[in-house]
Request: fold
Amino acid sequence: MFYDLLTTMSGKRGLLLFSQTFIHHVNKDHVMNKIMNLLLAILTFSGGLNSFACGPYGALEPKVKLKVELDRSVLPAGKTGKAVIKVALQPAVILRDAADRPPANVSIVLDRSSSMSGQKIEQAKEAAIQAVRRLGAKDIVSLVAYSNQAHTIIPAQPARNPEAFVALIRKIQSSGHTALYAGVNQGASEIRKNLGKTYFHRVILLSDGMANVGPSSPDDLARLGRSLITEDISVSAVGLGQGYNEDLMTKLAQEGQGNLYFAESAQELPGIFDAEIGDALSVAARRTVIRIELEDGVRPVRLIGRQGVIRGNNVEVEINQLYGGQEKFALLEVEVPAGKANENKDLARVAVDFEDASSGKAVSRKSAIGCSFSQEEEKVAASTNQKVAEAYVDNQVAEAKERAIKLADKGQHKEAVQELRKVNHSIAVQNEVYRSDKVNASNDKFLSDIECLDRDKGLTNKNRKSWTTEGYQVRTQQKASISKK
Reply:
């Protein structure tokens, strides 16, 4: 009956004629790919490990989709062209209570220096309490508070009874200086008590001030983050108010391959901690590496947004962790040799390797991308992929603002404005082809930011923090973003 069903149905409507449909012991190799999503959406499965789906008897293979796209699938014929390749990874949503959700090992590191007095420390404690309550019984939690020194308030242990931790957290009081480095180190020490087990490890740091005890430069914290990630310990950084060092926090998050936040007020902390715990509880994959091999004649120009390595016609980008329901991607700008009208051309082959979070198994995904050529301007414009175009523009803006910050820091605000206006104009020219309303709106907002920089003769403290944080979030596709625009 199953094979008759496959050959006669034309869509969901055919299957909906049945009140219930089961597929039992049907080899997955016999199921047509084009109806895979349909079957997953509306059928109930049973069967063994070699069946199309395993139902209660086992887990499906890791659900991380690889999607390779171009900003334009049709390029102008007869001349050398430019294309943007987007390599995206799209993990399925992971539920907190899912049986196969990998457990988290989280250490919360709170600044309790004197600058955190009043509403700041109270909101920080409430955020920590909410975070602890959100963890599951199979997760590990620890909490460190630091001022002149770092002290462990909650030693690493299963989060089976979060209410037992509440009284300990509420007792935290503010005083002293800011031994930020020691705080992160102590949090990592708690994480190490369960290192090597099947947990996904994360330190969540909160600070509202300048590190002034122990190692305190951005490079010091970058080295610490880089060292911790070699142990599979990621570090996320939350900056509170306008007194912290955003360069230090950015370096730590970047090298620690975690998230970055700027909370203007303490009231934002519970939302930020909730978002951060959400990521920690939804790791779908780790040690993720994208490899792009360009075809002969196609030249890599640059990576946009993410860091990576370009060697000849080979490009490699490390993303590390993927989170359920969150797309992560790399953007590569390439130069394409001239092609004839109606000609098709292969551009690149893509391979992605990662470790599946639930099974611990190594997984590979492969794909390829190509383009065609046309002499018709309308055909070229109509081939625009709006999502890729928007991502490309957003990352150009983020990179331009990063360069402008460096110029403004040197007192060269005019040069910073000139740099930004040049990129703003370039995006406007690009959008003559893309014809995207979102790109146009984004570029208008960008122009407004440029005018503010020009008017203020430099960056305000708040704007510098916003630009730094938002740029990082754009480049890393950080979904858990609470930053103010």
